[in-house]
Amino acid sequence: MSGLTKLTAQQWREELETELKENILGYWMKHTVDNKHFGFVGEIKSSGEVLEDADKGLVLHARILWTFASAYRLYKDETYLTMARRALETLKTKFNDAEYGGLYWMIDVQGRPSQDKKQVYGQAFVIYALAEYVRATGDADALAWAEDIYRLIEKHAYDPVHLGYVEALARDWTETPDLSLSGKDLNERKSMNTHLHVLEAYTNLYRVWKPEGLRAKLKELIEVHLDKIIDSSTHHFLLFFDDEWQSKSEHVSYGHDIEGSWLLWEAAEVLGDEQLLPKVKEAALQMAKATLEQGVDKDGGLFNEYDGRHLDDSKDWWPQAEAMVGFLNAYQLSGSAEYLEAAQGSWTFITRFVSDRVGGEWHWQVTRDGVPVVSDHQPKVGAWKCPYHNSRACLEALERLNLIEKREA
Fold first, then answer.
1. d(Cα 126, Cα 131) in Å, to the nearest integer?
2. How far is Cα 125 from Cα 107, in angstroms, rounded to an integer?
3. CB 3.0 to 4.6 Å from 69: which of 18, 38, 136, 207, for a disulfide?
4. pLDDT per residue over 62-113, tens digit each?
5. CA–CA gap between residue 138 and residue 123 (Å, rounded)
6. Where are the domains of the chain?
7. Residue 114: partners with Cβ closer than 8 Å, 6 or more residues away
8. How far apart are alpha carbons 25 and 390 in whole angstroms?
9. What pLDDT, on the 0 to 100 scale, is given for residue 1?
């Protein structure tokens, strides 16, 4: 083997599987099941304190469903299936809006909606998770529900004039002024983040359901990313837009860039459009190169953001996870050793600084020099702190290392 030695690949896989099973999945099974109310606890502080009455997020529960469905698909461990079913049941019985369709953004511990808007990002994550559950179990009801949510997004959120999707709608799918995903996001009509995760969701749905309409939408979404969301001069994602795709932000999000590079290639591969594949390959490698050159610190960690003037040099958990996968993907596409080295650097940084060897799971954030940040604003479990980025990184890396080893044997 030239780029990756057999011994290195074997050791890396062993470390990934131990991290996945013991430190990530094990943590969520042990600490997050809410036996007092239902589903999973809404928040656990970085200190380990459980906030029993915290509201429960749609994204949290959808990502738990995806994570444990994916783990069950790979390992066929019934304890993973039990976790996935618990998340699925909570989505069906507590988050589902029986009157208007779709799912609430947040609910309280009594199961009442505390934020009832239809955030397209959240609907997409449920599709993504349901499709993974279908891949793992073949469940026809889960597929039918995913199809229904897909149709709701297309009926209410799609922009037939300028393409793409509006960020959010009111509970009854009418217009709402409250568009933003979170307090740190701009209140604009369209965003990179939502489109990236609709792309991700439609890719996974297309794996298990292949109508021509979905195929056309997936192709269009890939083209929207190539034509409107990627800045052709910098090879970074633009982040926020008005209806007509005028950019509203100068920020660079290194984590989204490297995540997007591999999700776009995955979408193109699943779609199988021979004309699109070379275009997406070129774009993915350009994004990976820009991220490697501008966003990676000397210790292998990935910086958070750059706003055109100031570098946020702290390092959140999820960009590190996406960097490992994105650089492995770039290595698979190019054969360039610098990407393999970058992926190895990402994993080394994760194991040294981001993985919490004492409390379990991963720290939300570490400083540039690797010191964990303890803050009530950065919980161990929360509406945005879920098992999806890190579990997926381990699962993806395991699969990719196997493919690389076979190719280079």
1. 8
2. 16
3. 136
4. 999 999 999 999 999 999 999 999 999 999 999 999 999 999 999 999 999 9
5. 21
6. 6-408
7. 55, 106, 107, 108
8. 10
9. 42
Gap between the Cα atoms of 160 and 179, Å rounded = 19
CA 371 centroid distance within chain: 24
Rounded to whole angstroms, the Cα distance separating 16 from 217 reads: 35
Contact 122, 56 (CB under 8 A): no
Sheet with 113-115, edge to edge strand ranges: 56-57, 106-107, 113-115
CB 145 within 8 A of CB 130: yes
- Residues 327-350 have a mean pLDDT of 98
Residue type, 88: L
Average pLDDT, the chain: 97
What residues contact residue 248 under an 8 Å CB cut-off, 6+ apart?
186, 188, 239, 240, 241, 242
What is the pTM assigned to this prediction? 0.98
Helix axes 140-156, 192-208, angle to 10 degrees: 140
Encoded tokens for 71: 């783990």
In 98-249, which residue ranges form alpha helices assigned H by DSSP?
A: 120-137, 140-156, 192-208, 212-224
Instruction: With residue 312 as reference, give the H or E element that holds it.
Output: strand 311-312
Helices (H), 244-387: 254-271, 276-295, 317-334, 337-349
User: What gap in Å lies between CA 171 and CA 362, rounded to an integer?
Assistant: 34
How far is the CA of 183 from the CAs of 36, 161, 224, 315, in angstroms?
Answer: 29, 29, 26, 19
* Burial class (CB within 10 angstroms; exposed 0-12, middle 13-18, buried 19+) of 298: exposed
Q: Which residues pair with 315 in a beta bridge?
A: 366
Query: What are the backbone dihedrals phi and psi of residue 312, each rounded to the nearest 5 degrees, phi first?
Result: -85, 100
How far out from the chain centre does Cα 9 lie? 25
CATH of domain 6-408: 1.50.10.10
Return the pLDDT at 6: 84
What span, in angstroms and rounded, lies between the C-alpha atoms of 373 and 78? 35
| Phi and psi at residue 119, to the nearest 5° | -80, 120
Write the Ramachandran bin of 163: left for phi over 0, alpha for psi from -120 to 50, otherwise beta: left
